[in-house]
Amino acid sequence: MDSTSDNSKLSFISRYHVILKSHYFLFFSAYGVVFPILNLTLRSHGLSNTEISVSNTILKFLIFLTNPLMGFIADKSRRFLTTFNILVVIYSIAFTILFLLPNIKSHHIQADLHYLKPSEYVLDFCASQEVVTKCSSRSDCGCSYQAYCQRENYLFNFTFTMNSNNIQKRLKDTLKSQCGIDYRVSIDEVLLENKLDFQSSSMIKCEITCSIPFFCHGLRYKGQTIYIFLYGILYIIGYSLVSAANAMGASIGFSSLPGADLFGKQRVWGTIGFGIIAFSTSRIYELFRSEYVYVIMFNIISILTIIVTSFIPMHKNEKKTNEKKQKLNLSTLITLFKNMDVFIFLSITFIWGMSYGCLHPYLALYVDEMAPCQSRSIIGFMFLIASISEVTAFYSAKRLINFFGPNLSSIIIFLAFSVRFGGYYFISEPRFFLPLETMHFFNFGILYVLIAQKADLIAPPGLSGTLQGIAHGVILGLGCGIGLIVSSYIYIVIQQRLLFLVFAILNIVAAIFYSIYFLLTYKKSSIKNVIVSTDNNIVLEEDANLNQESLPSLAMMATNNTENKQ
């Protein structure tokens, strides 16, 4: 029957997949409310950069486990919509509690103001390295240090700066020290306004604060460990379930659509929703200056997501009806992973995941180090260009992947990563990074659709959600986690800028290696696909609709194994 006449009989909502578009728009809109500010929220609530980094590292490896697990549960129960909605409820509760938890309470930094000799004064205190570097690098942006001192009944305060010329520092000898480094800062006599008679008192007690509060904090109050633990647990659970829901959303899309090539045009509405709501939320927050803005908007949109998702029409995929459904067991998965094409597919997603581990959060940190006063503006424009490129990619993904083929598209993505990382290394002015963000067209838009289509293509009957979860778990979990660890070592121990050169070379090497592999396998498949008929002397060529690059399904693999045994 003609598909065109069938489409004409459908309602407007069904013909244009309005419910599925709304699902992606709302899901990623809720994501856009909290994603840009989650780490900033943790830091503003009192968590240190180290604690946030540890939470993010654990998160990546948990994503590698939760994504396939949630996909497996959905495949086993065949209730994708119900499973998705349960995930939305759980992570909404987790993030709501996270925002409502009390801040981690810390003492002010305790300091001693000393008189050494006429016109020479020093301020001694113990603090972490961040106290000095974060605020001092932003002195042009308005960040300053204030010392509040008391001598007997006389209170006074003064503002001072810290730089390499007026600071002496000594690393604490004992491992039990919680503050890290002893600092001695020279204080100009003019700052004290000559109001004090230091000769009668050689030391005065002071407290140090910063104009940006979370840059300067001392030792924490007792009993704060439980809150630190809760922040980490809620952040990890919430974010990992969001990632699992994201992967499951791809499976829902493929189960709802008549063809996999329509996925990109539906998913693009998620990016549109993310951009609109992320920007709108930031403006509303500027108006009210309350974190309740995030809590209220996030929960309202999450409730709408659950309602809309419940009405998505799910159809049985032809592959699931025409082929014998596979049993969900360990031997089935092992058989799948033994296939070389599946292994290559997952290894490619692993390297892309490592590249993501380098991009986030170290690109933003690098920009912040190079241009601390303009970093938020530059990063905002970088996200804007990346989002526009992503929207364009989703609309053109079908044509581009069909034109170049999945394998050549994979090589182009590697080269786009190389151009992007190479630019970060060789360009010294962060404002010139903006053109490089157009590479997000390939590094996320085309990449996301390509992975989703390939995972759906090679998934055996009954395992689409599981394989989608594995693919997303590898790129956003295992690969990103390993990349984050490697990036942390290079960025902190070796050199910040060198990090991007290393990953540029890694992607070039990967592009060369996989190009050779695809070329060799293409030649072998060309030979195998030519079947010579000995009776009629007719040469038949198998269908090359997928550019001779489609991966065999598990059913085909099982059939081949049966034939070999016979």
Automatic annotation (TrEMBL):
InterPro entries: MFS_assoc_dom (IPR024989), MFS_MFSD6 (IPR051717), MFS_trans_sf (IPR036259). Pfam families: MFS_1_like. Belongs to the major facilitator superfamily. MFSD6 family. It is a multi-pass membrane protein. It is found in: Membrane. Keywords: Membrane, Transmembrane, Transmembrane helix. Residues 18-501 form the Major facilitator superfamily associated domain. The keyword DNA damage does not apply. One of its GO terms (cellular component) is membrane. It comes from the Eukaryota. This is Major facilitator superfamily associated domain-containing protein. The keyword Transmembrane helix applies. It comes from Rotaria sordida. Its main location: membrane. The chain crosses the membrane at residues 24-42, 54-74, 80-101, 228-254, 292-312, 333-357, 377-396, 408-427, 433-452, 473-492, 498-520.
